[in-house]
Amino acid sequence: NHLLFLTGFLQVSSSFEVKDSSGKVCIIADLTAAFSVEYKSNGQKELAHFLLPQNATVEPQSSCGKANTSNPILVLGFGAGHSLSLNFSENADKYEVEELVFHYNLSDGTLFPNATAGEVTKVSHKTTIQAYLGTKYICINSKHVSMKNVNITFSNMTLEAFLTNGTISKNKTECAEDMLSTTAVAPTTPRQTTSQAPTTSPAPTTSPAPTASPPDPAVGKYNVTGPNGTCVLASMGLQLNITYLKKDEKVGLDLLNFIPPNTTSSGRCDNTSALLNLTFERTSVVFRFALNASAEKFFLQGMNIITTLPSEAKVPQFEATNNSMSELRATVGNSYKCSMKENLQVTDKALVNVFNVQVQVFKIDGDKFGAVEECQLDENNMLIPIIVGAALAGLVLIVLIAYLIGRKRSHAGYQTI
Questions:
Q1: pLDDT tens-digit readout, 273-297
Q2: Reported confidence tier of residue 10, pLDDT bands at 50, 70, 90
Q3: Do strands 372-374 and 335-338 pair parallel, antiparallel, or not at all (unpaired)?
Q4: Least buried of 31, 129, 228, 336, by fewest C-beta within 10 Å?
Q5: Is the dihedral of CA 236, 379, 255, 325 positive or negative?
Q6: How far is CA 414 from CA 256, 403, 408, in A?
Q7: Which domains are assigned to the chain?
């Protein structure tokens, strides 16, 4: 089969096509994929984090399939012997990624430094990625797939198999992650717990009812110094939001504002990764940044939270980790800035809210932020007054023109004596 690879254009997402022998497209995929792989190094467990690179290629094993004998498959190869396979199937009026298969080569010292074993390892998993025939599958939000020792997070995904007439459909099927509405955060005082009456469900899933709005946390400035000087520079107000189960089976909410003078910062960095650890009282929040060298972008790849919950919590010690994030992204040498509050989802129980955040990683001139790259929230917020102002200016202009026309008509038919 003739295969065509198209370079992606949106951040680190990439586009891929599979064509049949006649040149007709049967599979199209545009996606971002972040991998987290656990492996052993000198007897210790290590985590490797990397993205599907933009130079990944469609492998010859990819195929449009043959009726009644084989199904379509998209195989993406990258690095030193790594591959990600999407195996499609058709059932009634739907198609789906029936199985996701990932091969990774532990002898690749770039991704798996000092790995004890050097063999190629295979993991696979059934997925919930499905759409109606004649529609494209859309999933902008993060979609997690967990396998043995491997977590893959897809985002900004557009996918379609069994294409009609070889062109991507205009109709779409949205993933559940995009259709779910965001649950409102229950605001309280800087650190306060609230509760909710137990439900009939086996495990509580709703948040406590909101009360009065809490004050925004104070903005603190933090930095990390590496071998070549400052490698992380961050300014933000930090708020931790934890939903937990109480001893009486009710749901509690713990909201904690970090106080900058009482917050200590530490961390480390190298050429491709950086850690910023902020500790306040008995709570630690770690920001882990990574570098996408091909796109020359830095981004928040993962977070870790360790805290002690109130004594009413069923399990007082709380820890949450997410190694498949892609927030706070900017070009190396520039700084990411967002005046609006941003919610960083660590897990379904842990949320980190950042206020007036500005961050720069790796390439920093002294201790000053570089050129600003505004977040989408700020850009959208700026558009509103511009649109309103333009509308008002247009209205004033229309009124002025109408007045002038009316005045001219009022003098029509009169002449000077």
A1: 999 999 998 899 999 999 988 889 9
A2: very low
A3: parallel
A4: 228
A5: negative
A6: 77, 19, 11
A7: 3-177 (2.40.160.110), 214-376 (2.40.160.110)
